[in-house]
């Protein structure tokens, strides 16, 4: 089934690159933290165990919404340097859930809602947000005028969709605060299925390419500074596991980078 128009895809590395490129200009990278081991739920053939349950609004084949689900990731090569983070679903409701991200000693929560068309993030969150705040940078951005969903209820090879989102808020660095407004456009395509190997295991995954274009205006004492970002990312999603890998290249304020994030371990009840 072809999917087009107004599908929203709001991943920890997707729209949240808003936060990453601000970090690239103003904060040191976070040193890697030792990942806590978690049980990897998979069969001897390195395929995830499928847990049968009655479908709900939050049911999504490629993003299992289950209370207590935990994923450990490591990111290298990005504009913010090397870091590790843990995503945990800490609460599941009939029409939504809470995703908590921990990096170093800081935890940030992100609220989601579940709709027939898919899962929708209600606020900015994820590892880059937590990382910035751990570096004494306070970032408060609200999502405005968004459409579509974060994870469509169905994603199949050949599907294409686009997401546009406006953001508004402020960023505070070294006790100096600037107002920030901007918008992002993302074009997505599910390009095929292929095997992928990461520290958490070897999987058959759905490969999704993403083109990102981001424009932000930061206003401080009457001066407006335009900040732009462009990048191309590829994600690998696995049924009943979630996203296991992301690679991408981009340009932030004239500086190029190549980033890779891989799943280290996970436990999906």
Report on the architecture of this protein:
It is a single chain. The protein is mostly beta strands and 269 residues long. The chain has a single domain, classed as YmcC-like fold, CATH 2.40.360. It contains 2 helices and 13 strands. It has a 13-stranded antiparallel beta sheet. A hairpin with a 2-residue loop joins strand 3 and strand 4. The longest helix has 10 residues, at 17-26.
What's the layout of helices and strands?
Elements: H1 17-26, E1 70-78, E2 81-93, E3 96-103, E4 106-115, E5 118-121, H2 127-134, E6 137-144, E7 151-152, E8 160-173, E9 176-198, E10 201-220, E11 223-238, E12 242-252, E13 255-267
Antiparallel strand pairs: 1-2, 1-13, 2-3, 3-4, 4-5, 5-7, 6-8, 8-9, 9-10, 10-11, 11-12, 12-13
Structural class: mainly beta
Tell me the Rg in angstroms. Answer: 18 Å
* Total number of helices: 2
Q: Describe the strand arrangement of the main beta sheet, using strand numbers.
A: 6-8-9-10-11-12-13-1-2-3-4-5-7
Provide the CATH top-level class.
Mainly Beta
> H/E order of the elements?
HEEEEEHEEEEEEEE
Helix content: under 10%
Q: How far do the termini sit from each other?
A: 29 Å
Total of domains: 1
CATH architecture grouping: Beta Barrel
Low-confidence stretches: 1-51, 127-135
Shape: globular
Structure summary:
With 269 residues, the chain is mainly beta. It is 7% helix and 56% strand.
Keywords:
7% helix, 13-stranded antiparallel β-sheet, YmcC-like fold, mainly beta, 269 residues, disordered N terminus
């Amino acid at each position: 089934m072809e999917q087009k128009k107004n599908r929203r895809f709001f991943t920890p590395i997707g729209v949240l690159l808003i936060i990453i490129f601000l970090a690239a200009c103003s904060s040191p990278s976070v040193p890697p933290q030792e990942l806590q081991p978690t049980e990897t739920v998979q069969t001897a053939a390195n395929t995830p165990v499928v847990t049968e349950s009655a479908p709900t609004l939050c049911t999504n084949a490629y993003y299992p919404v289950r209370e207590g689900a935990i994923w450990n990731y490591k990111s290298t090569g990005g504009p913010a340097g090397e870091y590790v983070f843990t995503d945990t679903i800490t609460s599941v409701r009939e029409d939504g859930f809470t995703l908590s991200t921990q990096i170093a000693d800081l935890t940030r929560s992100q609220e989601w809602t579940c709709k027939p068309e898919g899962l929708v993030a209600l606020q900015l969150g994820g590892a880059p947000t937590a990382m910035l705040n751990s570096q004494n940078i306070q970032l408060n951005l609200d999502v405005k005028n968004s459409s579509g969903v974060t994870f469509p209820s169905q994603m199949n090879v050949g599907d294409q969709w686009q997401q546009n989102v406006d953001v508004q808020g402020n960023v505070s660095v070294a006790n100096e605060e600037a107002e920030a407004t901007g918008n992002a456009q993302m074009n997505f395509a599910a390009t095929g299925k292929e095997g992928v190997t990461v520290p958490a295991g070897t999987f058959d995954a759905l490969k999704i390419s993403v083109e990102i274009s981001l424009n932000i205006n930061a206003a401080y004492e009457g001066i407006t500074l335009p900040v732009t970002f462009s990048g191309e990312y590829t994600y690998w999603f696995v049924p009943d596991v979630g996203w296991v890998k992301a690679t991408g290249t981009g340009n932030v304020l004239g500086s190029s980078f190549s980033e890779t994030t891989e799943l280290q371990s996970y436990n999906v009840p």
